[in-house]
Amino acid sequence: MTNIGKSVSLVIGTPRGFTRSVLEALLKRGSKVLFACSDESAGSLEHDRLRSLYGPQQVFYSCVDQTSTEALESVFLRAMDTLGEISCVVSSTANDPLDLGSEDLQGDMAKVERKLDSLLVKKDVNSMRQMGHLATKYMGRQNGFQGGTLLNLTSSVELNGSTEAGGCTVLGTTRALGLEKRLAIHGVRALTVYQPSIDYPDLSQATQITDDQHSPYSEWDKYSSYTREYTGYMALHVGETEAPGTAWAFNKELRLKQVLPEDVPGTCGITNKMCFWLGCPMVKEEEMLNNMNIEEKIQTQSLDEIEMKREDILDT
């Protein structure tokens, strides 16, 4: 069991909605947090708000391109230089918008919706693979660290939407990242929590979770704020207590339930059950284990070549 509280945590994702709930839950539990996102306006505003509540030495912010591995790697290095060894990474695509062109919205509405749902799932999966690589590189035991937790927060589209056939799933990718043979090497526990779908049509808009209703909050919006804090706390609780490679979703009663193959209507083309039991085959073994230090290998090779050329010049 990993204790996420009072540790050094890294949060990647736009600080809105569910992501914001988990971010503040970390701070409430005493973690020092560096969060990063592409939206400089949203990130700066949230940083100012959190600094005023938890202190300037508890929360830090970096504006980076979330799709760039090089930029994200710089965030890991900054977190380690500023705060020390990272023990928890929260990677969220739950509240990130899609980049769409007008051509993506043309045609039959049902087909457009399937296409958009598929793009959202693809974005979730690509981010999980990217962060899986970085988390095992900068928290993995094979590199001299202590291991840790990678908590993925994704959209719930693959559970509720009608995606196109042939794509990978969040569930299969989660299973691949949490395989026991990989965990035994790097010690990074990968889990996923799907974004909760909270809709109470019988309640007024004032009682829904919105971005202007985060703490500090007044008496009249206690229900909304409690729901927000509860979902953030429970996501962290899953990261601490549940088995690696598992995915979880909030049901209509806001209770967390483990996601199984029959809960995912879409398929990756091989079958959900195979991905569930064996892990998605698209998450390559060498990407997770053998190539974790590829940048260092390339740099070392380049330095060796330079040194050999220098020696040749001196010899002549």
Arrangement of strands in the largest sheet: 3-2-1-4-5-6-7-8
Low-confidence stretches: 199-213, 290-314
Class inferred from helices and paired strands = alpha/beta
What would the average pLDDT be, to the nearest integer? 79
- Rg from C-alpha positions? 21 Å
| Overall geometric form | globular
> Count the strands?
8
Instruction: Give the DSSP E fraction (strand runs of 2 or more residues).
Output: 5-15%
How would you describe this structure in keywords?
alpha/beta, disordered C terminus
Descriptive overview:
The chain is an alpha/beta fold and 316 residues long. Helices cover 47% and strands 13% of the residues. The protein has an eight-stranded mixed sheet with strand order 3-2-1-4-5-6-7-8, with helices on both faces. The model is unreliable at 199-213 and 290-314 (pLDDT under 50).
Sum this structure up briefly.
It is built from eleven helices and eight strands. The protein is of the alpha/beta class and 316 residues long. An eight-stranded mixed sheet has the order 3-2-1-4-5-6-7-8, with helices on both faces.
Present the secondary structure layout.
Layout: E1 8-12, H1 17-28, E2 32-37, H2 40-54, E3 59-63, H3 69-83, E4 88-92, H4 109-139, E5 148-154, H5 157-160, H6 170-177, H7 180-186, E6 188-194, H8 222-241, E7 247-250, E8 256-258, H9 272-278, H10 285-290, H11 294-315
Parallel strand pairs: 1-2, 1-4, 2-3, 4-5, 5-6, 6-7
Antiparallel strand pairs: 7-8
